[in-house]
Amino acid sequence: MSTVVAQSLHVFGLRSHVSNNVFFFDEQIIMFPSGNHCVKYNVDQKWQKFIPGSDKSQGTLALAISPNRRYLAVSETVQDKPVITIYELSAIPCRKRKILNNFDFPVQKFICMAFSPDSKYLLTQTSPPESNLVYWLWEKQKVMAIVRIDTQNNAVFQVSFNPQDNTQICITGNGMFKLLRFAEGTLKQTNFQRGEPQNYLAHTWVSDDKIIAGTDTGRLFLFESGDQRWETSIVVKEPTSETKNLGVIQESESLIEFPAVTSPVPSYEQVMMTSSHSQLSLPQVFAIAAYSKGFACSAGPGRVLLFEKMEDKEFYRESREIRIPVDPQSNDPSQSDKQDVLCMCFSPSEETLIASTSKNQLYSITMSLTEISKGEPAHFEYLMYPLHSASITGLDTCIRKPLIATCSVDRSVRIWNYESNSLELFKEYQEEAYTISLHPSGHYIVVGFADKLRIMNLLIDDIRSFKEYSVRGCKECSFSNGGHLFAAVNGNVIHIFSTTSLENISNLKGHTGKIRSVAWNTDDSKLISCGTDGAVYEWSLSTGKRETECVLKSCSYNCVTISPDGKIIFAVGSDQTLKEIADSSVIREMSAFDVTYTAVVISHSGRMMFVGTSVGTIRAMKYPLPLQKEFNEYQAHAGPVTKMSLTFDDQFLLSVAEDGCLFTWKVFDKDGRGIKREREVGFAEEVLVTKTDMEEKAQVMLELKTRVEELKMENEYQLRLKDMNYSEKIKELTDKFLQEMESLKTKNQVLKTEKEKQDVLHRERMDDLLDKQSRELQDLECCNNQKLLLEYEKYQELQLKSQRMQEEYEKQLRDNDETKSQALEELTEFYEAKLQEKTTLLEEAQEDVRQQLREFEETKKQIEEDEDREIQDIKTKYEKKLRDEKESNLRLKGETGIMRKKFSSLQKEIEERTNDIELLKGEQVKLQGVIKSLEKDIMGLKREIQERDETIQDKEKRIYDLKKKNQELEKFKFVLDYKIKELKKQIEPRENEIKVMKEQIQEMEAELERFHKQNTQLELNITELWQKLRATDQEMRRERQKEWDLEALVKRFKTDLHNCVAYIQEPRQLKEKVRALFEKYVQRADMVEIAGLNSDLQQEYARQREHLERNLATLKKKVVKESELHRTDYVRIMQENVSLIKEINELRRELKFTRSQVYDLEAALKLTKKIRPEVSETVSSEDLPSVPPTMRLNVQEETGRIIEMQRLEIQRLRDQIQEQEQVPGFHPLAGMQLPCPQWRRFKGPDQVTPSGETSPASPEGVPCACPGLTLGCNPDHTSLSPRPWGIWDTGRIKVLAHKHVQLSA
């Protein structure tokens, strides 16, 4: 694999012809298809995440998201085979959960899909001619059921599940509306389609059994259990002004409330093909989306209608209209609102509505805005920015700014910012733009149109042409790297122009076919071109002639580029190879492996190469090119790549294609770090502005400032006047109200007195009435008891009568049974005779029936067909009537029962009320007098109210005037808010730059840390190597000394041998000399052998030494670890000792306190004189009590025992310290020293010296005898700081040994 890696950062584009092409993942994140990816886009934070398509994918056809938002199903075509990939969205990053690619049924592609409510099942619809509907258990890749929906090759646009039922399915298409139910492994149709077939484009479930569907003729149908219940038609009214209004007509029976369900979208191309026969004036309902208040539906080009439920009635009406706004940057603004809305979806909270259109645009609107603008139609806003709606033909970038320039077949030129991922400028023209080039400064562009070649300025808010050339159909143009020249292609001629003089410098002729691509070398001295004629030419601009040429007529070249050093040319074409050309010959060809390369680009560093293919993928490879198939291939576009470019710093790769999408890629090396080039100067922030625009804006600013100042003065003056008026009126009103309050208080007191009098009278009357009521109750009880006795006697008589009647009826029943049995026997005989006669008649009739059956069967078929339709119509009518009658019967029964209860209760109430009325009549007469007096007061108060109303009206008029002025101020505030937003938008790029710089700083810090670690490791290695070097040097010196010794010995031997040779004529002397040589040198030869042996020993010694050094190093590490462990133990012991010191100090305080108490008690007993002189003695007198002397003896014995134990422990610890100090690598703790050998301290009546002797107490501390200030002593040598050394437990008392041992008696 290649070491060059590209990571997708951002995409500018949308594929609107994918079914169900936009939906919400959550409240902030939407998902939509772009290129060959599915994009997750955060609306608030503006980031994008990508779900790439499958390898070798030919494009996405349909999307579906599960109701629980956990799974995403993507329908693709991979190598001409359909594939469904299901992704798990909850995983980070998104991963493939299942791939459905093995099918037992014929299928070309899957055009629409839907998940079940529990997300376990998946519904897929294949394209004609198969038109199979497949019901999947997708987790197990199992087909539960399959059925053929249509046999006439009609298009199916949408399939969906019932939102509450996994087994019920709805399918809509051209001439079909079908409801199916899954049962026993099959899908069966449950509805019968009646009436004229419609071309249903979209539908949505509104409840368990209700569906609303839209057609290509602007009609909306509501189906309940498959039967049509409601219909309305949306028509485009003929406009009286420039805009068109939509109305709703033909409302019928009833409407149902619609819940919020988003609607998937059919393929726009299929719909346009099937609906080409329909009238142009009729709006087509491509999308329906329901929400809690009603539903929204697309109503023709550029319009969406909202329907809401009326409060007092059970039907819906059109509430408001939402339009796609007119684009001021467009050449024909009326065309912007002529795009069809293909898909809509509401956010989970129903705050926003998002719509995608046939021109690859995404729009959004907040629902609260639609509620505000009830009178006028609301308008959509771009969700991100205007996108290209057709194939992108041109691409370029500059050096001084982070800008990208693109042009498209949609007649638009757009300038993008790849740092802020935003659209800077865009403009539409009358002609198609074929090619574009951006000046390195980022201030100018050259655009080749169908009629002319134009040079344009990039202003702050406009793209304005300032020079035109009569170069028709320019398909390729390019600025030089220095920006002083630009080349424009016209057919097979290359025109070279100067950007300073704007004149044609030279024309390069030589190609016989159309030129497809041109490229400049780094110093702009040469130009490389390639064309359809199979020629690659290298032109010299100084002479205007060809320098090198390479012609291969069998290949039609698509793109050409040149290496940074200008030596090698790279070209790609129709022969599926990448060619390296140098010196007019093809050096090397690299196969493209069954695809055609359409674009090629090499980095400015010369280390990376990127190639675009005809299937939309991008291949990244390292330069020099590998011998084998070593490259990284990335899924990018859904069409052939048209152009590619790298930014000047080799950080970002840009690619465009025929699918209308622009991708930005981050380029990495194998380690994941960006290939960074040093950038001395940052991006330029200058913007071109014309002088007239500046003057106009300055003049407008001055006018607005003067206007604001005038308004301020007017408002301040009017506010002062109003304050004066209001203060005067407030004073007048306060005076009036105070007077009225006093008068009302007096009236209130009078009324209170009258009320008290009436209360007394009322109580007296109530007592009288209660007495009367008790008497009447007693009389009624007596009467009712007599009536009850009479009724009981009547009841007994009736019971006797009923018993007699029962006996009579039983007798009659018996008689009837006897007569019935006789009559049955007679009838059986009579009917048996008749049966025989009828059987004969039947046989004859059967023969006639057989003859007439054929006639009846033919007529029967015709009649049944007619009758079925009539029966169903009658059935629906009578079912409605039955329901209405049943409901009315139930209602009437309930009402009658209620009325009976009410009637009985009302009778009782009437009797009670008659009594109350008589009482109240008397009271009424008295109260009428009071009312007349109160009416006079009311008349007076009404007059006062009228006067106050008049004053209130005056105030309201003034408030209205103030509100008007407040509205004007709010408008001014809105303008200021808009300016603030623009300023914030300008601040955001800076914040992004700061974030990027912070990330770079963090990376640099991480690298610094890594380098520090490496340096420390290298230093250790260097020290080891130095030690080895020193050892080898010593060995070298020894070997050299040995060599010198041997050479000297050999020389001496040679001289002696030479002397021996002189005696060669004399054998005896020769023999003696040889013997002397032997005696002299044989022993030294043995030494040489021993030296040879010593060299072996030295090698063994070196080996043993290395082994011991390793062991020593490991031991040192262990010792260091153990010392660290010992330090922790010592720190723990010190902490424990400190706590114990505190406890000892507390015990000492308690001891002092107890001693003082003892002294007090002894003084009380008049024994202090006898005890005090005996404190230092060991034996007490006989006159004292026995307890104190024994206590004193015990204390002395314990102190002696403690001193001995402490001495032994101190000696043991000193021995341990000496042993540990002898261990190599061990260092004692800092600050730990042996205690001062000479010390004294006052503590209590007696004190102990280091020798164990006790000395009498003195009022002051005895100075330390140690020379100078030691670690255990304070500067005054009288007090000692506690230094923990060890702990001993002697039964009840914990004794602490410090560096300076402190004890008290």
UniProtKB/TrEMBL annotation:
GO terms for biological process: axonemal dynein complex assembly; single fertilization; sperm flagellum assembly. It is found in: Cytoplasm, Cytoskeleton, Cilium axoneme. Residues 694-754, 795-1021, 1098-1164 form a coiled coil. This is Cilia- and flagella-associated protein 57. May form homodimers. Associates with components of the nexin-dynein regulatory complex (N-DRC) and the CFAP184:CFAP263 complex. Pfam families: Beta-prop_EML_2 (PF23414). Its main location: cytoplasm. GO terms for cellular component: axoneme; sperm flagellum. SUPFAM superfamilies: Quinoprotein alcohol dehydrogenase-like, WD40 repeat-like. InterPro entries: Beta-prop_EML-like_2nd, CFA-57, Quinoprotein_ADH-like_sf, WD40/YVTN_repeat-like_dom_sf, WD40_repeat_dom_sf, WD40_rpt. The keyword Metal-binding does not apply. Associates with components of the nexin-dynein regulatory complex (N-DRC), a key regulator of ciliary/flagellar motility, and might act as an inner dynein arm (IDA) hub or linkage. WD repeats lie at residues 385-426, 508-549, 634-667. Residues 393-667 form the EML-like second beta-propeller domain. Keywords: Cell projection, Coiled coil, Cytoplasm, Cytoskeleton, Repeat, WD repeat. Gene3D superfamilies: 1.10.287.1490, YVTN repeat-like/Quinoprotein amine dehydrogenase (2.130.10.10). Belongs to the CFAP57 family.
